[in-house]
Write a structure and sequence with these properties.
Number of strands of chain A: 12
Oligomer: heterodimer
Largest sheet of chain A: 9 strands, mixed
CATH class of chain B: Mainly Beta
CATH superfamily of chain A: Thiolase/Chalcone synthase
Structural class of chain B: mainly beta
CATH topology of chain B: OB fold (Dihydrolipoamide Acetyltransferase, E2P)
Shape of chain B: extended
Strand content of chain A: 15-25%
Number of domains of chain B: 1
Number of domains of chain A: 1
CATH topology of chain A: Peroxisomal Thiolase, Chain A, domain 1
Largest sheet of chain B: 5 strands, mixed, barrel
Largest interface: A-B, 35 and 24 residues
Order of helices and strands of chain A: EHEHHEHEEHHHHEEEHEHHEHHHHEE
Number of helices of chain A: 15
Chain lengths: ~375, ~160
Amino acid sequence: MGYRKVAIVGAGITKFVRRAEETGPEMAYLASKMALDQAGLKLKDVEMITLGTAPDAFDGVHMKGEYLLSGAGGNGKQYIRNFVGGGTGVFAPIHGWMHVASGACDVCLVVCSEKMSSCHPHPQGAFLTIFDHTTEQPLKPTLIWIFALEMRRYMETYGLTKADIARVAVKNKNNALDHPSSQVADTVTLEDVLNSEVLAEPVHRLDISPASDGAAAMVLVSEHVAKRLTDKPVWIDGVGWNLDTAYWATKDLYYPRYVEKAARMAYEMAGITEPHKQIQVAEPYDPFDYKELHHLEGLLLCERGDAARLTAEGYTARTGNLPVCPSGGALGVGNPIAATGLMKVIEIFLQLREEAGKRQVPGKPRVGLAQAWGDLMQVGTVIVLRR
Amino acid sequence: MSFKDSIHLNTKLGYFEGEIPVNYQYTLGVAGNIFFKTLMEKDEFIASECSECGTKTIYPLIYCEECFAPIEKYVPIGLVGELYSYTHCYYDYQGIRHEKPHVLGLVRFKGVQGGIVHRIEVKPEELKIGMKVGAKLKPKNERNGGIDDIIHFEKV
């Protein structure tokens, strides 16, 4: 379609923690510097910067993009903030891809930073006003309530039990034991998840990822620059995004059509015709355990309603036919919203370079995918990488 | 009632009141902690100094904005600077008018990038851009490691 090839040549990620001493710009700096160092570049080599971060109300800083600019290396540069809610972390590298693929620049730094711990008594309060002010806010909803509705409908549609869902939390929290940035890795068992505190039935505490502080960054470059910098470029082969209505009650809660549409866009660009056979490692967004299953189906990586069976049979384990969330995902590594999505893209980058250490999946994968999701069940962002 | 009709009483239309029910606890950050701890204990401002390009910055950062090198050195720069600009403020951020305006100024320090915005207590006839001003600090036992440890800047 006339796009220039775009490669990832460096990545950086901070630890994900409940409360960081660092400010947002300080976290953004630490991740950005790591990414530039890995790429063998200086800030002066960077032409454009795109920054992804979740709503301003989390950090309590209006115009958060401008606030984070300095730490993201944006001082005096062509810098822009991108934002599609919880889907931002995967949209950020898509936005960076636009900069390089279009020919607007050869070197683009992508940064995501999130400081949720500033928000008291809980970031759920900041979510309140994403609901309709007239029909929903007076009920004082939390996101957990509506995801409980979605989870129950998903379970009902396909005849799934709580245990079918909870296996995802067990897998991901254990996978995260090998991730150096991990906040909530643990050797939890199925019983631990099933017996954890009920928040809004059927959602229990260990079904959910935590609120986190953290940052991630990556360097995208054009083909001729990539050839100068590395023998191991990872190419962005396909990108897709799709947004659905904020009137979430009008949708089928058991299936994320917007994720499917985003995936189809990315697959078409990447020439992927049979995703369940061609995608060799995947990092779908898993802020809740059932969302990983939901997203595997929306990404066309399995039949509708079949993701839980595949999980139970070990198909999605790190050593399975399709390793899913080998990083440990949001459930294990933590969930500093935008930084989580970029952490997932970085995990695929490392897996394809065979640099994932203890998390490395077998079989020398060549093609992988990361996906994020967000807002009122309405955003899907997908990126396909290839080495 | 439609968009083109003029409404003078907001409550004439159906409405719900709302708010974002959160408050914030901001961390000072790594460099901020160093700055305010030094001010609290040693009565001096510090700037970050870049070991690669030499740029000094106040408030200090953990990185150099110019060359993006990590900061390894923080240097004292005293409490006295130069008044770079000032204004007389009559209204606060809620639109409430003060009986008497207060003066807000930007103070800069020689050889240092950045500056400190704070209250300026100088006789109106002496107020002048470029004048030397110094920070008046609270007594040590009243400091709590924040910007209000500085009472104001005054003529020196």
